[in-house]
Amino acid sequence: MTEPSVRWTALQQRIDQACRAAGRDPDEVTLLAVSKTRDAAAIRALHQAGARHFGENYLQEALEKQPALTDLPLVWHFIGPIQSNKTREIASHFHWVHSLDRVKIARRLNDQRPASLPPLNVCLQVNIDDETSKSGVSLAELPTLVEAVTALPRLQWRGLMAIPRADAPDHNRAAFRTLAMTLSQWRHTIPGLDTLSMGMSDDFEVAIAEGATLIRIGTALFGPRN
């Protein structure tokens, strides 16, 4: 087996174990390969190992790689902060956006999503620990953003995303649980919500136990950066 295949298989085994421990079906959890700073060849190799979903943080870097990979059935996720002058390209070149946290950006993504493409899948980023250094809407402000996004026809609200603090003694269990409970409450009025984007290399097993449906993994899949 190649190195990408070994890493992919090892991560899938850990996901399966975490799901079984939580009484969940492993098919409920999507492994998103965070491919920032990785070149097209590395993405192609990981696709050959089994990866389909790839997450990019930096628009220009993603736009440089994507043309070399158009022959592959990849699903592209934008997971970084969104600047107003980047929305047109993001709306045109991605299937998903995980980091939506402002009404202004939502409207721009909606207006600039090409009519030839299906609605853009979006997760609303929640600043679950109210950290001043992080992007995301507060839980108190979330209803205002929800109201705006659900009124935009070119966006499809799928769920919530969060990046909890790195030093939580409970490996972010409380933060993940809060995010899951928040989504559950919204599903009473919007049944189609199905995505909890939470959990990274150090805490994804805890995230799965608390209901994550999409985990974002970088180094453990691609290996250390050169």
Architecture overview:
- It is globular and about 50 Å long.
- It is of the alpha/beta class.
- Helix 1 (3-21) packs across helix 2 (40-49) and helix 4 crosses helix 5.
- The longest helix has 19 residues, at 3-21.
- It has a single domain, classed as Alpha-Beta Barrel (TIM Barrel).
- It is built from nine helices and eight strands.
- The chain starts with a helix and ends with a helix.
Q: What string gives the helices and strands in order? A: HEHEHEHEHEHEHEHEH
Overall residue-averaged pLDDT value = 95
CATH class: Alpha Beta
> Structural class, please?
alpha/beta
Major sheet: arrangement of strands: 7-6-5-4-3-2-1-8
Please tell me how large the radius of gyration is: 17 Å
Number of domains: 1
Q: In the CATH classification, which architecture applies?
A: Alpha-Beta Barrel
Low-confidence stretches: none
What kind of oligomer do you see?
Answer: single chain
CATH superfamily: Alanine racemase
The end-to-end distance, rounded to whole angstroms, is 22 Å
* Helix content bin: 25-40%
Globally, the shape reads globular
Biggest sheet statistics: 8 strands, parallel
Number of helices: 9
Please give the number of β-strands.
Answer: 8
Strand content: 15-25%
